[in-house]
Amino acid sequence: MKITLNRINDDFLFECTNSQGNSILLDNTSQPGAKGVSPMESVLMAVAGCSGIDVVSILKKQRQEITGFQAEVEGERVPVDDAKPFKSIKVKFLLEGNIDPKKALKAAELSFEKYCSVSKTLEPNVEIGYEVLVNGEKV
């Protein structure tokens, strides 16, 4: 796996591109007029994307009918010397459709305990929690 990062303006805007040519913009969001996400926001996006792929994949294999899927991710950061790494990350899955709530909860559990490489990478240093709502009801 390899990405390239190219600076595309005179400030802090970068384009990150993978080997398939897909890209995202990273920027210093503490500056006015930022045109991309911050690197730390991209970490939260990676957790959401990785676990989201797992949950949808597991539920599709179980023939659950997903009509809506959203994840909200919040990260708490703490100062460590001059850096501010994540201390904890909380993921909330909001699923809609003809979905067995127990299967949805199990899918999230499997993602975080077994499959999600992003959360497994962060896990030794970051506490990761999750909750699941199916059709507006917390499971």
From TrEMBL:
What Pfam families does the record tag this protein with? OsmC (PF02566)
Q: What class of enzyme is it?
A: oxidoreductase
Q: Which Gene3D superfamilies match?
A: 3.30.300.20
Q: What is its EC number?
A: 1.11.1.-
| Keywords from the UniProt entry | Oxidoreductase, Peroxidase
Record-level Gene Ontology MF annotations? peroxidase activity
InterPro entries annotated for this entry? KH_dom-like_a/b (IPR015946), OsmC/Ohr_fam (IPR003718), OsmC/Ohrsf (IPR036102)
Give the protein's recorded name: OsmC family protein
Its source organism is Chryseobacterium kwangjuense
Q: What is the lineage of its organism?
A: Bacteria, Pseudomonadati, Bacteroidota, Flavobacteriia, Flavobacteriales
